Amino acid sequence: MNELQTMLADTANRLFTDKLTKQVRIAAEEGEWPQDLWNAVEENGFPRVLVSEARGGAGAQWPDALVLLKACGTHAVPLPLAETILANWFLDQAGVDVPDGPITFASAQLTSGPDGMALAGPMQDVPFAANCTHVVALSPSDGTDGGIQVALFASPQVGQANSTIARESVAQVSVSGAAIASGLASLPLNSAMLFGALARSAAIAGALQSVLLQAVQYAGERVQFGRPISKFQAVQHQLAELATHAASVGVAVDAAARAVLADPNAAEFDIAAAKVRASDAAQIGASIAHQTHGAIGFTYEHGLHFWTRRLWSWGPEYGGAAHWAQLLGKNAIEGGGHSLWATVTAR
Amino acid sequence: MQTFRFDPCDLPDSALALRDEIRAFLATELDGFPARKRAETWMGWDAEFSRKIGQKGWIGMTWPKQYGGHERSALDRYVMLEEMLSAGAPVAAHWIGDRQSGPLLLNYGTEEQRQKYLPKIASGESFFCIGMSEPDSGSDLASVRTKAELTDEGWRVNGTKLWTSGAHRAHVMIALFRTATEEGNRHGGLTQFLVDLDTPGITIRPIKDLSGNAHFNEVIFEDVLVPDSQRVGETHGAWKQVTAELAYERSGPERYLSCYPLMAELVQELGDKGTASERDEIEIGRVVAELSTLRQMSVSVAGMLEAGQNPALEASVVKDLGAVLEQRMPGLATDLLERPFHLGTGGLDEAAAYLVQNAPSFSLRGGTREILRGIIARGLGLR
Ligand SMILES: Cc1cc2nc3c(=O)[nH]c(=O)nc-3n(C[C@H](O)[C@H](O)[C@H](O)COP(=O)(O)OP(=O)(O)OC[C@H]3O[C@@H](n4cnc5c(N)ncnc54)[C@H](O)[C@@H]3O)c2cc1C
């Protein structure tokens, strides 16, 4: 980790350890917006980590922001922090000023009218929509210059809302009138899916580290048959397996962030690989963590579930393992077996 | 709890240039080399090929020039190996010397031993094998019983080594013998030796494996005399040498690329037929994602080796995940092609048939899955 990354990690860990209590988590699951926590996050400039300095951000790079995206998982943060970091990055890439407050994003169909950009129809499955002051819509641009149209709308109107397994809300969103700002970003057409997938992969990497730590600690404390269960080889091997998956997702996500830093338009392979690994490992990891904890981990009271329910929820969000694997596989087959190795070693 | 460190590692320009050079060389050298042969890759023995590789300067790449080495970086060597394996080149003859025995002699050998053996390993003329396992000592390596007793004429060796890959064709065995029985200290009393395999009293019996090939052996020692000048490192001090050696054995790309040539053939055939189903694409894509991730982990381990760190724990993580992935590839070919594989075709089918039969060994050789997970659990502080 470089200096900035160490600083971000220390600040985030301290902040979330202090302020993100069990009560805050439970209240958030019951629908109460954790305003104090959000204020603290904003005071530390986290939402603007990827925004250029000219627009009042930290001007950091993707591998730096990754520290915060992972922290969303390590601490099971019940805030649209990842969403806001990404929405702000999209805006900055499109040359649009970034508002304060929580912002969410989704892919959409934009039409240009006399007053500027407007939504052609409601946006679906928008995370945290009810809690956000703004929403960013990402749409294919109608020009031929490549890239996507990025539009910022205030006061999203939330339609049918659902709760994810993580007890976070997703909703249908519409807006009244035209965008308050819009611009063109030289990013891939499927940016909402792609970078959403990367953010979720990073969060899964963090959550896997966290459930590994919890399970290792618990196994060292829980005594059965006269010794800590960590002394049983079957338990050790399960945890070793969880550790290898956690390490693998960490590496895949790092690689994806470096690929985005090099060229967001050429990062699809690495992001897809990271999401495949993350989504598969999320299921394995949650399962081993619960097995290690026995019945106590199955209670609401215990709290392991704040992480495992997120792992279950994040796995399929923004495309699950099969979705991204199919893209990789299709490209590999079309490219031919004899050029696959060149693709793999180009990373 | 310790977390494992896999820092990203960028390959230097020298390694990237070398990659192009090796690709071009192999494209010519292995033109028309059948899929079945490529499937053997690091188990494939071809002395002539090894000599060519030696002449190219691709053995002993990191060793000092005075011993025939080339003083290149560990990352250059990493790239050399991944190119050889992904192309299915037959590297078995020189591979043990390059991977294990050479570094062992550089660390612990005498000057005389280095001069005698290293230049010939590097030129691809001298081939090594590893004599660790015995009939009663597999995972529990400290229990080896083949005995070496110091006499006036040198060390007198009696006992049996088992599963020694390539012993029937190698020139030298790096052997682990019991030189003392110390109560309560199983790891003491072990010593390593360089045994020239034409020494009188050695009988080598190839053992057919389930695929019908004979690549590993039983090696019987009857009153074999080994001069003290052939002892490697301290008497009774081999345990730390052997554990260091095992880290070399576990860290390389041969721990996840054994089946890569089959994977390339499979993807090629699916593409050629033009009938890949959604399921084919998903299954292939999953393996591509894992392959790419494992390779980055493996490059990261190579980077740590280059930086002089000791990535033994991370190497175990790569080997464990790698064996699972390798073992999946032949099964994937079986699942996706949905036809019985027949021998004698030389092509994809026979390559798959060979690897289906060899896959069980991937999580045995070089340390079993259970032993590796024990090492990882220790790293997690569980034992
Ligand atoms: C293809 C191939 C090539 C080989 N080449 C060489 C070579 O060149 N040189 C050489 O020295 N050796 C070689 N080996 C031997 C290899 O290192 C051993 O097979 C391996 O160490 C396991 O030993 P074993 O076969 O005696 O199995 P065992 O040790 O008897 O193990 C049998 C099973 O019990 C499990 N087990 C054993 N102990 C424990 C424990 N403490 N906890 C949990 N489970 C345990 C093992 O994991 C395994 O599943 C080769 C093996 C193969 C298959």
Compact overview of the structure:
The complex is a heterodimer of chains A (347) and B (383). With 347 residues, chain A is of the alpha+beta class. Helices cover 52% and strands 16% of the residues of chain A.
Mind explaining what this structure looks like?
The complex is a heterodimer of chains A (347) and B (383). Chain A is an alpha+beta fold and 347 residues long. Helix content of chain A is 52%, strand content 16%. Chain A has helices spanning 3-19, 22-29, 35-43, 62-74, 81-93, 191-221, 233-262, 268-293, 305-314, 321-335, 337-345; strands at 103-107, 110-113, 116-119, 123-127, 134-140, 148-154, 157-163, 169-174, 181-185, 223-224, 227-228. In chain A, α6 (191-221) packs antiparallel against α9 (305-314) and α8 (268-293) packs antiparallel against α9. Chain A is globular. With 383 residues, chain B is an alpha+beta fold. Chain B has helices at 13-29, 35-40, 47-56, 74-87, 92-108, 111-122, 238-251, 260-273, 278-306, 312-337, 348-358, 369-379; strands at residues 128-131, 147-151, 154-162, 172-178, 190-196, 202-208, 214-226, 231-232. A four-stranded mixed sheet of chain B has the order 1-4-5-8, with helices on one face. In chain B, β2 and β3 form a beta hairpin. The mean pLDDT of chain B is 95. The chains are: A alpha+beta (347), B alpha+beta (383). Chains A and B meet through α6, α7, α8, α10 and α11 of A and α8, α9, α10 and α12 of B. The structure holds flavin-adenine dinucleotide (FAD). Residues 129-133, 138-139, 163-165, 216, 361, 364-365, 368, 370-371 of chain B line the site of flavin-adenine dinucleotide.
